[in-house]
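Please decode residue identities from the backbone states below.
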């Protein structure tokens, strides 16, 4: 087992670590094409170069886009074997929005209680296929990505979540864990009221800690203890360099026994401020990477 995979695995099990691993679940194609233009169109190579340049232990890979799925089926992600790689799969809410539109999904939840269950069978079959391929490609985890909350909480009632969506999340986690992979969950916004439900569904890690929605990493640690690991937390857009450095120092002191994977709260895109990125990732040298 590589040092990167071993360290992230220890963090997820809340075991002592020599250093907190750093990782990004989302690195946009725009970011990769801008800073790694010599490898443009070669997504796998771009990701590898980005991981090395940033000094990451964990990297997320999009499993939803057709161009990425072709790499998955062809086994091209086996080149990531030294890193803790996480395949990202869209959840039921994201899938329904893509099919029916954002407003229609939330306006029709009461009128059509079977909105999510109708598509669950197809979704779960697709999840089984991708999870098997992820395992064959040497991935360590799969993340269910579903933006189901805003700054004031869930986009629907807790009762609707538990009746319509949570059972699907649970089945997705069971498929992932059944292949001996870790199960991650992503949603922006304030999902505090469902974290315990996600733990009970079998999820190992929650991404991100959305501070702009009022989430506090240390409050969550106190409340949930060793039940769950968190990922993300550092707001590269809203915080200045001093705040980022202070938060890194505090996190490294308070999570010596695991429970946190450091990284940006919003992923890496062209909106990420370059000079702030260097505070989180000291290996980052953007001037050398520009085309």
């Amino acid at each position: 087992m590589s040092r990167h995979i071993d360290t992230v695995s220890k963090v997820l099990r809340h075991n002592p670590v020599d250093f907190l691993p750093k990782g990004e679940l989302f690195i946009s194609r725009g970011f990769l094409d801008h800073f790694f233009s010599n490898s443009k169109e070669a997504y796998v190579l771009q990701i590898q170069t980005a991981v090395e340049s940033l000094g990451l232990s964990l990297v997320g890979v999009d499993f939803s886009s057709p161009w990425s799925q072709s790499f998955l089926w062809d086994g091209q992600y086996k080149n990531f074997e030294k890193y803790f790689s996480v395949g990202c799969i869209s959840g039921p809410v994201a899938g329904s929005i893509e099919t029916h539109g954002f407003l229609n999904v939330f306006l029709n939840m009461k009128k059509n209680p079977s909105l999510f269950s109708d598509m669950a069978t197809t979704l779960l079959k697709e999840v089984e296929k991708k999870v098997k391929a992820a395992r064959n490609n040497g991935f360590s985890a799969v993340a269910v990505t579903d933006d189901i909350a805003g700054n004031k909480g869930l986009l629907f009632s807790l009762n609707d979540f538990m009746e319509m969506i949570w059972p699907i999340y649970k089945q997705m986690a069971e498929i992932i864990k059944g292949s001996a992979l870790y199960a991650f969950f992503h949603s922006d916004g304030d999902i505090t009221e469902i974290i315990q439900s996600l733990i009970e569904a079998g999820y190992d890690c929650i991404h991100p800690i959305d501070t702009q929605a009022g989430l506090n990493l240390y409050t969550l640690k106190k409340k949930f203890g060793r039940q769950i690991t968190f990922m993300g937390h550092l707001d590269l857009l809203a915080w200045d360099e001093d705040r980022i450095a202070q938060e890194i120092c505090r996190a490294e002191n308070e999570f010596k026994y695991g429970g946190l994977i450091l990284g940006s709260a919003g992923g890496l895109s062209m909106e990420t401020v370059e000079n702030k990125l260097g505070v989180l990732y000291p290996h980052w040298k953007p001037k050398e990477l520009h085309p």
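Observation: The chain is about 45% helix and 10% strand.
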